[in-house]
Amino acid sequence: MISESVTVQISSGLETRPIAMLVQVASRFQSSIQLECDSRKVNAKSIMGMMALGLDNGERVMIHADGSDETEAMKSICDYLTKDGR
Fold first, then answer.
1. In what order do the strands lie in the sheet with 2-7?
2. Of 85, 38, 35, 43, whose CA–CA distance to 62 is shortest?
3. Is the N end or the C end of the chain the one with fewer CB atoms within 10 Å?
4. Main-chain phi, psi angles of 59, to 5 degrees
5. Owning domain of residue 63
6. How large is the average pLDDT for residues 27-32?
């Protein structure tokens, strides 16, 4: 398992469309991916969980990835969250 802390840099915040895109990015990987903020931890592949987390631009989030492709998964999630959702 690997973990990394990043600051969300999506100017619109994690609203419906950016959340759906994040879930799509996470779903490409076999690894388990979780996002944690303020002691709440959710499955990054769950759109409902991600919406409930309610992340906003500038907020710090801890990403946890565990599995055979965890390194690639971590890089993709970090890239998505820190490159304004591109």
1. 2-7, 60-66, 32-37, 40-43
2. 35
3. C
4. -85, 145
5. 2-82
6. 98
* Sign of the alpha-carbon torsion through 49, 50, 56, 62: positive
- Give how many domains the chain has, as a whole number: 1
DSSP state of 31: S
How many CB atoms within 10 Å of residue 11?
Answer: 10
Q: Are 66 and 32 in contact (CB under 8 A)?
A: yes
**CA 82 centroid distance within chain:** 10
3-state helix, strand, coil in the chain (%, to 5): 35, 25, 35
Higher pLDDT, 13 or 47: 47
Cα 78 from Cα 31, distance rounded (Å): 15
